[in-house]
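re: ur question from earlier - yeah i can do the single chain one, its not a big deal. heres the input i used so u can compare w yours
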Amino acid sequence: MSKTTYSTTRLRDERNAVINPIVDLKEFREIMVKQWNETLINSALVNSHQEQQPLPTLPIKIVEYAGDILKNYLISLGKKEISVLEVMSGNCSGSRFLHRTISKGLKINEWICTDIIDFTKTIKENIKFHKLDGLKAVEQYGNCVDILLLMCPPPNQIFDGNHVNPMSLCDYYLMNDFIAMNKGKNKFIVFIGELGASDGTEGLYKYMLSNSKIKLSHRQMLISSYNQFGPIEKEIFIFSIL
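and the output i got, formated as tokens:
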């Protein structure tokens, strides 16, 4: 029987990745936004797989565990009520379990889910859904909420050989926008998943943990395991905007 071998460097390499400063150029960002608007997925009306299999990316118990961690952390700060903007929320299955768990200890004034595919008919409970890309979602609702939430956003490398991946960087840009518009307002960015590795744009891990405009206020492991690509570490990161 052959022995399964695991990569021991995948997670380390992805966490050591650095986002090229060129992406902050106005012209580069404009090109990326143009590419997003031209992609076929942006014009899709449905995603049959996610609608027919309405389950979170993470196991339900793990989502609930993350919800308990976030709820207890906010309560420790004296919070009694919150409002949430969740971007790249997919079919919102994870959102439902997270909402249900947090609402047991905090009043949720508003929970807004957004995605570029219309998942309106999958929404249940007290969650609002809007078909919006992440940048437009932050532009419209970023000033109105306490928390920007990303839960297992799609993994992407910025550069694919000599070409720029047209599906990357939206998470990077929208978090930058949220930070800029909420400086000094006691707001949070919550990331659930493998930051900048199997979840989100590669390079986000080092960028977020070294960003002087935010502070990592809480970090906790949710699940640690292995697959054919090596170790997997899904965590919850709670960043405070300074």
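The radius of gyration is 18 Å. not sure if urs matches, ping me
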